[in-house]
């Protein structure tokens, strides 16, 4: 029930006893206007109208809230109906204007992610770039704000997080027995060991790699660590901040002495947030995230790596043209991005091919025209029209062979603007509509009386709701049933292929050379190892991949938006919502709600608010469902990993492999894959329980509060007629704002088509 419990309290209308809370302050007009600098004039006008609608709506809600608070301030007890209204009003007042849109630039080292961000924000060398080596060493978030200066915040590992990594690093380097000559050579060439030595030397100084964990705990770091674990940098100019920031995010070379204060704490850096002042190219509310392609050895950094990918609503897989033409790295990254769509919030994936200036121009232009690229075809995400962007940051600056438009940098900026504008339009429309429903009910309390047969009407509606909930439960069961056959087939495939997969993971082309301590690192991290230079290793994911190969197409279909089908969940919830709203309309027409049209409208609007919150809940929970297979396998194999990690001395690599093989064999024989299957089923059941509990509880509360005023739930409230009338005007103006936006966009497109130079639309003054 833990999954259900952590959701029920997240509904839009919890009855909170702390009803006298002060709403947060409004944002200043001058600050709000700065958010639109990145948009052409037509889009600026639309955004300003939506912003004005939102601002006026918040003002109406705040006035209503204050009146209700004053009317009950001296009461010994506040009726539940009034609590409901007050808490709903406060929740809407404090609702964030717009959650950020995270656009993840996901790619291998050296693919050109930083160069692309620099071109998009019009700052050539803002993030470190180099044609010869890896540059960005951690997750870097770039956004714009209403600040006056350029600002960066470097977030460091906490003391406990560093101790955890330190313990793993020293375990990786610890040898209780003298290795033979062959393994001594392997030690020197092992990437995991080199990186561990490098981190310890940089943080504690030369010789740190020979000290124990306890000795290093007592040792004094070379650099000064702020108690807040955050380093803040500010500068008036972009170049100035770039110089200050470089030592923190530039991948440090191992042949440097590491004496600067910045490089000495480099191993502690978790991630970096950069804020640009009032950008005319990147609108506030959009966050560009430079994501390394492999994750990190540190558990917290690796967890952040995964969560960052999953919270991105858009992922651009970055790969340079030479790797796309001759390698598989871009396909692996694209597949990882598609997994993010399966388990996270991502709705859009595109392949951004960088460094196209390396191609011969006629070949490049011909390929752009043909759009002939080989990409995985097992996801609906890949049906998007703008799947591939071919860009050149270098040509964007030089324009020796390509125009600015042909570099496709402006096209990416246009995509960013459109994403934010669409999200703002949807958010304001929903916000104003929801606010109007609350004002309808609030005003109705003081101006209407329920007809004598109200209880009969509400009783009939409750029976209808109960019947529809039962049908919704059956529809959910039908959706989830579609995963059953692929899940069973995947388990059978996993049982027949796990030896081959595990063998491939444990074999290297050069034998054990360069793999001894890397395998130990894999075991120390429960089957997962990520470094800046090697491809990510995840034994748990590899072993369960045959199951994912079977379920992925169906799993994606269950959580995809679209027309109702047997396997698609969200449209069934949408159909459930419409059936309730239609029933309320029918009851209202036939049975006397003509005396209380406010209540009918409120119920219809509140149904939308209640069920609208389900989508976010489902998206949050689907990650737990999707990862339940690998999590289950990892938990079952944990004793095996721990045993292998303790092995040292002669032939340690082969002995570790033997422990892993025997451990996997034993767990498979005891039903490891079947347990993973049951745990995924259990997670699906928890999601179903969460959905139905939310629907039952929230709608039951709403119907109770909307029923008779004579049951003690309500009292006479302050007069809010003026607020209701203003809210009614705002609600009517939604359609007008949308029509104006379409008209302006059409005029802008016409002027662009008629312009010989195809110039970028002018900015509004």
TrEMBL record:
CDD domains: Ras_like_GTPase (cd00882). Residues 1-38 are annotated as: Disordered. Pfam families: Dynamin_N (PF00350). Residues 14-23 have a biased composition (Basic and acidic residues). GO terms for biological process: cellular response to lipopolysaccharide; negative regulation of apoptotic process; regulation of nuclear cell cycle DNA replication. It comes from the Eukaryota. InterPro entries: Dynamin_N, Nuclear_GTPase_SLIP-GC, P-loop_NTPase. It comes from Neovison vison. GO terms for molecular function: GTPase activity. This is Nuclear GTPase, germinal center associated. Gene3D superfamilies: P-loop containing nucleotide triphosphate hydrolases. GO terms for cellular component: cytosol; nuclear speck. Signal peptide: none annotated. Residues 103-323 form the Dynamin N-terminal domain.
């Amino acid at each position: 029930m833990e999954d259900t419990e952590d959701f029920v309290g997240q509904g839009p209308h919890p009855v909170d006893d702390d009803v006298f809370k002060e709403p947060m302050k409004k944002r200043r007009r001058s600050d709000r206007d700065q958010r639109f600098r990145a948009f052409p004039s037509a889009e600026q006008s639309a955004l300003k109208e939506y912003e004005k609608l939102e601002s006026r709506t918040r003002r109406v809600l705040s006035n209503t809230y204050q009146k209700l608070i004053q009317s009950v301030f001296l009461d010994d007890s506040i009726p539940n109906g009034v609590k409901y209204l007050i808490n709903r009003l406060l929740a809407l007042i404090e609702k964030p204007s717009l959650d950020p849109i995270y656009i993840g630039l996901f790619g291998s080292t050296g693919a050109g992610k930083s160069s692309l961000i620099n071109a998009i924000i019009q700052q050539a060398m803002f993030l470190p770039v180099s044609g010869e080596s890896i540059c960005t060493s951690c997750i870097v978030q770039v956004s714009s704000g209403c600040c006056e200066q350029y600002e960066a915040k470097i977030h460091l590992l906490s003391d406990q997080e560093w101790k955890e990594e330190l313990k793993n690093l020293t375990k990786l380097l610890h040898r209780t027995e003298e290795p033979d000559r062959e393994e001594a050579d392997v030690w020197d060439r092992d990437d995991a060991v080199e990186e561990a030595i490098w981190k310890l030397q940089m943080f504690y100084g030369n010789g740190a790699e020979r000290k124990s964990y306890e000795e290093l705990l007592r040792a004094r770091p070379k650099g000064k660590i702020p108690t807040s674990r955050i380093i803040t940098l500010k500068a008036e100019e972009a170049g100035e901040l770039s110089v200050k920031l470089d030592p923190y995010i530039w991948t440090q070379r191992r042949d440097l002495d590491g004496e600067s204060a910045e490089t000495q704490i480099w191993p502690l850096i978790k991630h970096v947030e950069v804020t640009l002042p009032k950008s005319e190219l990147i609108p506030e509310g959009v966050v560009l995230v430079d994501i390394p392609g492999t994750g990190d050895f540190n558990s917290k950094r690796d967890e952040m790596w995964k969560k960052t990918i999953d919270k991105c609503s858009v992922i651009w897989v970055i790969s340079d043209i030479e790797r796309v033409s001759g390698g598989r790295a871009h396909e692996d990254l694209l597949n990882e991005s598609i997994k993010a769509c399966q388990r996270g919030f991502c709705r859009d994936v595109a392949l951004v091919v960088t460094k196209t200036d390396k191609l011969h121009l006629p070949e490049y232009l011909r390929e752009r025209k043909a759009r002939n690229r080989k990409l995985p075809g097992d996801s609906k995400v890949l049906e998007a029209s703008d799947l591939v962007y071919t860009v050149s940051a270098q040509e964007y600056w030089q324009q020796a062979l390509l125009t600015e438009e042909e570099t496709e940098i402006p096209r990416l900026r246009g995509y960013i603007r459109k994403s934010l504008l669409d999200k703002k339009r949807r958010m304001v429309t929903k916000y104003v509509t929801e606010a109007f429903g609350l004002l309808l009910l609030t005003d109705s309390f003081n101006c209407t009386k329920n007809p004598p047969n109200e209880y009969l009407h509400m009783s009939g509606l409750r029976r209808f709701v109960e019947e529809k909930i039962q049908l919704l439960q059956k529809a959910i069961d039908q959706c989830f049933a579609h995963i059953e056959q692929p899940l069973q087939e995947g388990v059978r495939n996993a049982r027949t292929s796990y030896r081959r997969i595990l063998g491939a993971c444990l074999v290297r082309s050069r034998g054990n050379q360069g793999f001894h301590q890397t395998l130990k690192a894999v075991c120390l991290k429960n089957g997962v190892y990520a470094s800046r230079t090697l491809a990510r290793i995840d034994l748990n994911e590899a072993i369960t991949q045959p199951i994912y190969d079977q379920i992925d197409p169906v799993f994606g279909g269950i959580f995809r938006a679209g027309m109702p089908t047997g396997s698609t969940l969200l449209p069934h919830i949408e159909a459930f919502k419409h059936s309730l709203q239609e029933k309320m309309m029918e009851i209202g027409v036939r049975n006397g709600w003509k005396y209380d049209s406010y209540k009918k409208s409120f119920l219809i609007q509140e149904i939308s608010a209640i069920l609208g919150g389900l989508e976010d809940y489902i998206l949050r929970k689907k990650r737990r469902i999707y990862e339940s297979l690998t999590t289950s396998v990892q938990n079952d194999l944990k004793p095996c990993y721990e045993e292998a990690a303790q092995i040292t001395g002669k032939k340690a690599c082969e002995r570790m492999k033997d422990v892993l093989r025997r451990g996997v064999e034993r767990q498979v024989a005891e039903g490891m894959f079947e347990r993973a299957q049951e745990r995924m089923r259990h997670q699906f059941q928890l999601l179903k329980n969460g959905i139905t509990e939310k629907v039952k509880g929230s709608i039951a509360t709403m119907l109770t509060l909307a029923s008779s005023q004579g049951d003690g739930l309500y009292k006479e409230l302050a007069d809010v007629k003026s607020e209701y009338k203003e809210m009614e005007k705002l609600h009517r103006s939604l359609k007008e704002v949308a029509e104006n936006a379409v008209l302006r966009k059409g005029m802008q497109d016409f002027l662009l088509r008629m312009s010989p130079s195809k110039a970028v639309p002018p900015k509004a003054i």
